[in-house]
Amino acid sequence: MNDRIVSLKTLDSGTVTVREPVWCLGHEGDPVVHLADVTHNGEWTSATVDTARGPVEFLRARLSWAPFGELQPEPYPVVEVVDVGDLNPEQLRALAAEAAVHAGRLYSLANQLDRLWRYGR
């Protein structure tokens, strides 16, 4: 891994020099108040579906890591999934498997809806 070295200003620890993972988008504009607030975030990824109201994103997820967190220490990066939480590799695999199963349920519902549209309620 070719991590970068960055210097960040904090109120409790002054200017700190930390390793920044290559996947981190940087810290410009991040309000780092305490060392525990330093969080490395990657790029968001999501699924998108077109609806009558326009495109809707769901299952937004990104790599995230707060290596100095005090309340919830993160010795390793996690994946932050909006409306789900921070997941370790096994939890993320379980989410992906459930999403795949649920996709089958949604497809079945689409077939049922199609029959209702074609043949009435």
Kindly describe this structure.
This protein has 121 residues and is of the alpha+beta class. The chain has two domains: 4-87, no CATH class; 88-121. Helices cover 26% and strands 35% of the residues. The chain contains one helix and seven strands. It has one helix at 89-119; strands at 4-10, 14-20, 40-41, 45-51, 54-65, 78-81, 85-87. Strands 3, 4, 5, 6 and 7 form a five-stranded antiparallel beta sheet that branches. Strands 1-2 form a two-stranded antiparallel sheet. It is elongated and about 70 Å long. The termini are far apart. The mean pLDDT is 93.
What is the makeup of the main sheet?
Answer: 5 strands, antiparallel
| Helical content band | 25-40%
Elements, N to C (H/E): EEEEEEEH
Low-confidence region ranges: none
What coarse outline follows from CA principal-axis ratios?
A: elongated
Mean pLDDT: 93
Q: How many distinct helices?
A: 1
Which class best fits the helix and strand makeup?
A: alpha+beta
**Distance linking N and C termini:** 58 Å
Number of strands: 7
Question: How many distinct folded domains?
Answer: 2
Rounded radius of gyration (Å): 20 Å
Provide the β-strand percentage band. Answer: 25-35%
